Model the fold of this input.
Amino acid sequence: MTAADLSRLSTDPVALAQALIRCRSVTPAEGGALTLLQSVLEPAGFNCHRLPFGEAGTPDVDNLYARFGTIGTNGPHLCFAGHTDVVPPGDETAWTHPPFDAVIEAGVLWGRGAIDMKGAVACFAVAALAFLRKRGDSFPGAISFLITGDEEGPSINGTVKVLDWMKQNGERMDACIVGEPSSLEAIGDELKIGRRGSLNGELVVHGKQGHAAYPRSADNPVPKLARMIDRLSSAPLDQGTAHFEASSLEVTVISVNNTATNVIPSEARAKLNIRYNDLWTRPKVEAHVRAICEAVASDFPANASFRWSVTFSGTGDVFRTEPGPLVDTMSAAVSRITGLTPRLSTGGGTSDARFIHFHCPVIEFGLMNKTIHQVDERCTVDDLHRLTKVYAEFLERYFG
Done:
């Protein structure tokens, strides 16, 4: 890569976003995206660490931690967090433009990761580099980037392990901005300050296999599972709270280990996803589900077992960052650039902020989320420039 290429990537968020999209980094593949980002940050004085992690039964994942400045000086340490891994593109022939070509047409950038979240990574990188060029040696504090390749995967060998590495190496953060797509209809209309908890579970009803013509010699688990699903789904968990929307329980998968219509199966399974607010904790959610299923089981009777996920990407506890310096500074920056007053939200799914909030205050602010994970994921060039300006304004205010 030439000096001219590096200069353009470090000053133009659209060019950097295009270059990142062209890296086929479908999770857990690095695809060259972290290497590209490192090549842009190192010449600007960032100390970069490539942090590959692995664990039995999970794919190895490469991560990047890069810091400019010194921790423990008169200024704070602000971290930008994000990911360069993307979900699979699906049917590539269904895309208007190939998903990894990063085509710009009529002011719109098309490509997998344009919104989730290579676009935001490009914006906060360019904003930070411009800020540091302006401040020079007078900059007090530190700016870092925590970029994982595992956010769209199991989330085992990514952010959570990088955070552990940072703690072991004295890399203490004072605040963090996650660049997940947070806006709804316009850049800046929403700022995420927390998330509901999310828990995945699997319910298994055990029966006895047999011939469908002789049901007395078998034990059919299917109607028992159906009754449990009905009970679980029919009653709302709550009506919401002051800061969080209502909790929800959704049955997402039903499966039976049987393909023959004249055979009663030996077991039936259902997978659940529960999104819960601050009225609940994970143990309370598990106890609630278990109590309902056991009440149904006692009527039949039925033999049921549960398995709760502790590693999948949908798992994380409820959290909220109280309004204060971090939230107020970002809100002011958004208003200054966009003219909007962002709504403080805790809605939506999960992100790696669920790991970061244990280490420092964290908020999420990024592009509009309308086309994330879809065929024809895309964002406007204007939105990339606007988001870069918001991040730049935030940096001026935060370190001012």
